[in-house]
Amino acid sequence: MKEIYLPLHDGKAPYWLLSKMKKLANQIVKIIIIEYGELEFLKRISDPIFFQSFSNVLGFDWNSSGSTTVLTGVLKAVLNNPEFEIRVAGGKGENSLKTPEEIMKMSEEVGADAEMLIKFSRLAAKADNSALIDGYTLYHHAVFFTKKHFTVVQQGMNPEEKMARRYHWEVYTKIPELDDVHSGIITERFEERVINMVSKRSKESRKLIVDLVRDGTFRKDYEKLISISRKGNAFYVPRKIDWKAVEKAYNLQVENFEDLLLIRGIGRETIRALALISDLIYNVEYDKQDPAKYCFAVGGKDGVPFPIRREVYDEVIRFLSDVLKQTQLSSFEKEKALDRLRV
Q1: Are 222 and 242 in contact (CB under 8 A)?
Q2: Rounded to whole angstroms, how far apart are CA atoms 300 and 129?
């Protein structure tokens, strides 16, 4: 069974490969939607192993950060046309900044709630970039949606380690509370120092953080945090707090963590400071565990490889094999795709 790594790679897929990937993807997507429905397709996209296997079937590199960006681009080209009722907004780098504009346009095509989708898009990006502080910065953001359902696939990079990790969210019909929103995270290793504010185990900390902002005590508590750090404690205290954004949150009297996170200027440094205050001053702990669910390389202090979820892989292989056999590809093309799936 292959192991999944996501080393950070530059470059682009050649045109001839993209052309073949789009042809095969169109066949596979069409069969999945006809046989299982649009919702099932979104659920499959939100499954990291399916996503990676799909990329492999189409012929792209298995162990590359590009498998995320290329497959998303292929699916965007295939799905964003009148033949389907599923749309894909966003993408890599500058394309991710066009997500709201694309959602507005595509929502009209399928009858989706554009305002809700744009808010979900912003929340998902802020959550994985600022509320899950794991050492990776987002550079890819894509929202997959139908009239009623939506999910997001995002990817972050750690340039120093030359690694990437991909974040898959569950499928939703409304904007979720930030409680274990990920269906899975693909990464090569677990990170030891993580502030995971999107975990159920951080629920009380999130509530306290909102109270600190609403009560106007954050600045005073922040000074206490700096004082604690100067006494030789080994933790990093952020220095770049956007106090105007904090003041705006106070004036708005934000009601929940999600609304706080959506305020422009409330970033990872502010959330880190608030989480540390919650933990070190008020003894309300946040979740310090890496939420990554799919790690396939050597990791952890004991150096033991993390186990691969073979039952999930087997199910994905059976599913894609059945779909491939129903396509109108030539026998040779089918066999080549099945071979890539079996490796």
Answers
A1: no
A2: 23
Q: Would strands 137-145 and 132-133 be described as parallel, antiparallel, or unpaired? A: unpaired
Dist. CA 285–CA 131, nearest whole Å: 15
Burial class (CB in 10 A: 0-12, 13-18, 19+), 226: exposed
Verify that 181 and 264 share a domain, yes or no. Answer: no
Confidence of residue 265 (pLDDT cuts 50, 70, 90): very high
- Whether residue 298 sits in one domain with residue 161: yes
Residue 310, pLDDT > 70, answer no
Is residue 7 a part of any domain in this protein? no
| Cα 9 to the center of its chain, rounded Å | 18
Convert the pLDDT of each residue in 93-125 to its tens digit: 899 999 999 999 999 999 999 999 999 999 999
Strand partners, 298: 305
b/e per residue 229-259 (b: at least 16 CB within 10 A): eeeeeeeebbeebeeebbebbbeeebeebbe
* Residue 40 belongs to a domain: yes
Q: pLDDT band at 15, cuts 50/70/90? A: low
Confidence at 181, pLDDT banded by 50, 70, 90: very high
